[in-house]
C-alpha cells in the first residue's frame, strides 16, 4: 500500500474522496477547487471552504503574534473566496487549545480575527473549542457568495490566453526566511515589508471583485497559496492545457529584489515554489488585456502579465532570462507527511 | 485575568465572541445554538455547525477503530442538524495527520465516513489535510437545511411544557467506562449494546423529521451531547425558565440497568452528566402529548416524558425516587482545559 509520503497531499485527497459519488441536486461545483459551490437559490451561489493552521507546521508562536495569527488564519480562507470571485459572508472557527495557551493569547488572537472580519463585513457564525494535547491549531470554515453565473474556477483556460498575477511574488517566503535567521543584510524597511507580506497577507478581494464586475472574460482563476508553479499546474490540469511563463516578467517587489541580491539568494525558487503569496493568478483572452490594465490602474492595484496558456497538456514551462526553456517539475502537493 | 479553567468552555466562547456584533442581513439565528442559521432564499434555511474530535481527548485509538471514528465524527455533527429539525446535506472534513497515521488507517476512516454519508445522503463537499505533530484530529463542518419557518431552537420552552427525550440515557458513558476496565460483570450482549451506543451513535434524524413534520408544537429542542443536566440547562437559560425532572422516569436500557446493578454503579451520574447520548431533548405543551406518542409509536421510535418546565429561572431540579428535590449544579461546560 502506498505510504502518505509517496501519495502526497493531492494523491491522498483523491484516494480518500474517489468513492464519494453523491452530489446534491443544487451542487454547482463539487470539491476540487478553492471552494465548493452550491446554489441555494436562483440568484446566488454559496461558496464554502475550510483550512487549518497547525502550530510548528504552519506557524511558530515565537515568530507570529497571536493577533497576527488570528488575522492570517482568516485571511488565507478569505483568499479562497477571492479566488472564486466571491464575497465572504461568514466564518466558523475551531480552536484546538494546548495547555500553554492563555486567556490573553486567545483574546489577542480574536482581536486579529475581529479586525479582519470587520474590514470585510464577515460574521462570526460558530465554532468549537477543544483541548489539543500538544500543538495549538485553528481550523476555519468560510462561507461566501457570488451571483449565479458569476464564478471563477480553475477550469476554463484556453490555448493562447494570457496569464496574469496580482501583486508581487516571493515576498512571503523570503519574509519567512529572514524571520528565522539573524545574519541577513536587510534594511529595516525591507524587513518590515517582507515580514508584513508573510505575517499579514491581504486577501485580494478588491481585485477579485474588480474582475467579477468587469467585462474582461476571465477564463480561469486560483489563489497562489502553494507557489506559482504548483498553482499554475492546477489551472493547467483542470483546463487540460499547458503554460509558459517568462522569468523576466515575474513581478518582484523592490525589497525582494534587493534582499535577494544583497544576500546572494536565488529569487526564482522563492517565486516559483515559496508559497503563501495569496495573490490571484488568472487567465484571459488577449483582446481583454487593455480593459484589464485600465481597470487595475483606476483601482490602483498591481497586475502583471507573466505568460501564456499553451496546448502542451499539463506542462508548465519557464522561459529563462538566458533564453532557455525549462519544464517545471510536477508537484504532488505540499508534502508535510 | 481569568484563566481558562475558571472560564470553562462556555465562558471562553462568550468572552471571545462578545465583540463580534456584525450580523449579515439574512442571518436567522446567530451562533449560540446547535447550529447557526441563515436564509439563503425565501423557502429554505441553511444550517451550519462545526465540531472537532482530538486524539486522547475525545477518543483513544486503542479503543475505537478508524472506521468507527469516521462514522462517529460525522454522526455527532449530524446530531447538531437533527437538534434543529434539519436535513443534513454536506460535510467538509479537516484531517490533522500525525506521523503514526497510515494510509490504511485513513482508508478505514473514510470507509466509516462514506457509510454514514451514504445512509443520510450527505455530500462530501471539501476539506483540508494537514500534518499534526502529535495527535490526530478531525474537524467536521456540516451544512443542512430546513424549510423557512420550520426550525427547532433552544429558546422557546414555556412554564408547564412537558420535557421529553428520545432513546435511553447513560448507555454511551457506561460504554466508555466498561471499555477502559476489564473486571466488569457484564454479559457479552450488554457489552455489545453499550459499546455500540458509545462508538456508533445514531443521529436522531428520523425522530427530528418526525417532529418537524408533525402538528406537535415543539417549543424547544437540543441534542444531548454533554449530558442531560447540562443540555437541559441550555434550554432553560435560553428560554428563561427552569425545569424539574423525575429520577424514576429517566429512560434506561435493560443493559444499562443490569450492568449498573451488577457492578454497584450509581446510574444517576451517568445519566445526568455522562454525555455523548446524542438523543433529542425537547419540550412541548401538554395538549400535544397524545399526538406525540401516537406518532412515535407508529415510527417505532422511543420517546419518554421525563419532566416539566417550571418558572424558576435557570434552575434544573431533580425529584429523586425518595421524594426529595435536589437542584442540579450549573456547569460551565465540559472543562477540558
What do these coordinates show?
The structure is a homodimer of 337-residue chains. Chain A is an alpha+beta fold and 337 residues long. Chain A has 2 domains: 27-147, PurM-like, N-terminal domain (60s Ribosomal Protein L30, Chain: A), CATH 3.30.1330; 162-327, PurM-like C-terminal domain (Phosphoribosyl-aminoimidazole Synthetase, Chain A, domain 2). Helix content of chain A is 35%, strand content 24%. The first copy, chain A, has 10 helices and 13 strands. Chain A has helices spanning 4-17, 66-83, 103-119, 171-180, 188-199, 205-213, 228-239, 254-262, 267-273, 289-298, and strands at 27-29, 36-38, 44-54, 87-97, 123-131, 137-147, 162-166, 220-223, 242-246, 280-284, 303-310, 316-319, 325-327. Chain A has a 7-stranded mixed beta sheet. In chain A, helix 4 (171-180) crosses helix 5 and helix 5 packs across helix 8 (254-262). The longest helix of chain A is centred in the first third of the chain and has 18 residues, at 66-83. Chain A is globular, with a radius of gyration of 20 Å. Chain A starts with a helix and ends in a 10-residue tail after the last strand. The model of chain A has no long low-confidence stretch (mean pLDDT 94).
Amino acid at each position: 500500500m502506498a505510504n502518505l509520503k509517496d501519495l502526497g497531499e493531492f494523491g491522498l485527497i483523491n484516494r480518500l474522496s474517489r468513492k464519494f459519488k453523491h452530489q446534491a441536486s443544487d451542487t454547482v461545483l463539487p470539491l476540487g477547487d478553492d471552494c465548493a459551490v452550491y446554489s441555494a437559490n436562483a440568484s446566488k451561489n454559496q461558496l464554502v471552504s475550510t483550512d487549518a493552521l497547525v502550530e510548528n507546521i504552519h506557524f511558530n508562536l515565537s515568530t507570529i503574534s497571536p493577533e497576527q495569527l488570528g488575522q492570517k488564519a482568516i485571511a488565507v480562507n478569505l483568499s479562497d473566496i477571492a479566488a472564486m470571485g466571491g464575497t465572504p459572508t461568514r466564518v466558523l472557527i475551531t480552536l484546538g487549545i494546548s495547555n500553554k495557551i492563555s486567556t490573553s493569547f486567545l483574546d489577542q488572537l480574536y482581536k486579529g480575527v475581529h479586525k479582519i472580519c470587520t474590514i470585510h463585513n464577515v460574521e462570526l457564525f460558530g465554532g468549537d473549542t477543544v483541548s489539543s494535547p500538544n500543538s495549538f491549531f485553528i481550523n476555519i470554515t468560510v462561507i461566501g457568495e457570488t451571483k449565479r453565473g458569476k464564478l471563477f474556477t480553475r477550469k476554463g483556460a484556453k490555448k493562447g490566453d494570457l496569464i496574469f498575477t496580482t501583486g508581487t511574488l516571493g515576498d512571503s517566503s523570503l519574509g519567512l526566511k529572514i524571520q528565522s535567521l539573524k545574519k541577513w543584510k536587510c534594511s529595516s524597511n525591507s524587513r518590515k515589508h517582507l515580514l508584513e507580506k508573510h505575517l499579514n497577507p491581504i486577501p485580494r478581494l478588491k481585485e477579485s471583485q474588480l474582475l467579477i464586475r468587469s467585462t474582461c472574460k476571465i477564463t480561469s482563476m486560483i489563489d497562489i497559496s502553494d507557489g506559482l508553479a504548483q498553482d499554475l499546474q492546477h489551472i493547467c490540469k483542470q483546463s487540460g492545457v499547458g503554460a509558459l511563463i517568462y522569468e523576466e516578467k515575474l513581478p518582484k517587489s523592490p525589497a525582494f529584489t534587493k534582499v535577494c541580491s544583497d544576500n546572494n539568494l536565488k529569487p526564482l525558487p522563492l517565486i516559483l515554489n515559496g508559497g503563501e503569496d495569496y495573490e490571484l493568478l488568472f487567465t484571459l483572452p488577449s483582446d481583454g488585456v487593455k480593459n484589464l490594465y485600465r481597470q487595475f490602474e483606476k483601482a490602483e492595484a498591481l497586475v502583471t502579465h507573466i505568460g501564456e496558456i499553451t496546448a502542451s497538456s499539463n506542462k508548465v514551462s519557464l522561459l529563462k532570462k538566458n533564453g532557455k526553456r525549462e519544464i517545471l517539475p510536477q508537484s504532488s502537493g505540499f508534502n508535510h507527511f
